[in-house]
């Protein structure tokens, strides 16, 4: 994939085995419009089939990472015969499916946050496997301030943060600092302003050097076991790990460790 025209609202560029996906609609604060959601979904679908991409970075242009849903676009549908209910359900489902595709993508996904991640933008960060944010980045789920509880962002937040921290964000609707987000468990690292994408790329390149087979197996198993009771989770991952041990990558990796050399993964 090559970098698209800078006039397009979503850009992609390959950096060796890493795919950088950049939201590029700064005038709209990179809002998750219907078009933006469809474009991200399309890129994720294509990436899931790639044998060459080992990691994905989600970044953004401009002062905001993502301001959430396009509220003006949503409000325009209040003129529909059903006052917008069907469209609201359609768009929220479309967005939720896109978030779930990030979780189900075989490759790890890293958010590189500069600026504000609000509402569904915060959900986007929480849906990624890892997240790096600049020092001046801010995070919020402010729906409660305008009479709309951030119920869809709540799904991703409640699966990444402790219950108390998730409810703090959801019920206060306040802006939280990058340090708070790190303390809450929403992001992995805080870096100087302007360095989030570079740090995300550093992490992605480290990941790209690992066994893509092990990462694919492990990412899927991680999210599967989270939803199971502990005893059932252990039964599940025992089978997953036993099957993983049978793969060529496991044999090569273990032999390389014993022989004190770097493993050579197949393509």
From TrEMBL:
NCBIfam families, A to Z: PRK08139.1
Matches recorded under Gene3D superfamilies: 2-enoyl-CoA Hydratase, Chain A, domain 1, Lyase 2-enoyl-coa Hydratase, Chain A, domain 2
Highest classification ranks of the organism: Bacteria, Pseudomonadati, Pseudomonadota, Alphaproteobacteria, Hyphomicrobiales
Recorded GO MF terms: enoyl-CoA hydratase activity
InterPro entries per record: Alphavirus_nsp2pro, ClpP/crotonase-like_dom_sf, Enoyl-CoA_hydra/iso, Enoyl-CoA_hydra_C, Mitochondrial_ECH-domain
CDD domains hit by this protein: crotonase-like (cd06558)
Protein family per UniProt: Belongs to the enoyl-CoA hydratase/isomerase family.
Keywords, sorted A to Z: Fatty acid metabolism, Lipid metabolism, Lyase, Transit peptide
Pfam families the UniProt entry points to: ECH_1
Domain Peptidase C9: 255-267
Role, per record: May play a role in fatty acid biosynthesis and insulin sensitivity.
Key word Lipid metabolism present: yes
Protein name in UniProt: Enoyl-CoA hydratase domain-containing protein 3, mitochondrial
Keyword Lipid metabolism appears in the UniProt entry: yes
């Amino acid at each position: 994939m090559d970098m698209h025209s800078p006039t397009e609202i979503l850009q992609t560029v390959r950096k060796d085995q890493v795919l950088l996906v950049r939201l590029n609609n700064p005038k709209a604060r990179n809002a998750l419009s219907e078009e933006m959601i469809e474009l991200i979904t399309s890129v994720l679908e294509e990436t899931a089939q790639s044998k060459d991409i080992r990691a994905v970075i989600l970044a953004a242009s401009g002062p905001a990472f993502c301001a959430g849903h396009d509220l003006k676009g949503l409000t325009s549908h209040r003129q529909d015969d059903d006052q917008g209910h069907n469209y609201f359900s359609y768009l929220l489902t479309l967005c939720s499916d896109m978030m779930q595709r990030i979780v189900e993508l075989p490759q790890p996904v890293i958010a590189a946050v500069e600026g504000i991640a609000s509402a569904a933008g915060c959900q986007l960060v929480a849906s990624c496997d890892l997240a790096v944010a600049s020092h001046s980045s801010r995070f919020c789920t402010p729906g409660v301030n305008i009479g709309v509880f951030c119920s869809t962002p709540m799904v991703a937040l409640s699966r990444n943060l402790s219950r108390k921290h998730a409810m703090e964000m959801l019920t206060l609707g306040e802006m939280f600092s990058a340090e708070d987000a790190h303390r809450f468990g929403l992001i992995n690292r805080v870096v100087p302003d302007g360095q989030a994408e570079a740090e995300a790329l550093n992490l992605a390149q480290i990941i790209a050097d690992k066994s893509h087979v092990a990462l694919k197996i492990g990412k899927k198993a991680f999210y599967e076991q989270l939803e199971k009771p502990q005893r059932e989770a252990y039964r599940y991952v025992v089978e997953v790990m036993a099957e993983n041990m049978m793969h060529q990558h496991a044999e090569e990796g273990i032999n390389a460790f014993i022989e004190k050399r770097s493993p050579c993964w197949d393509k």
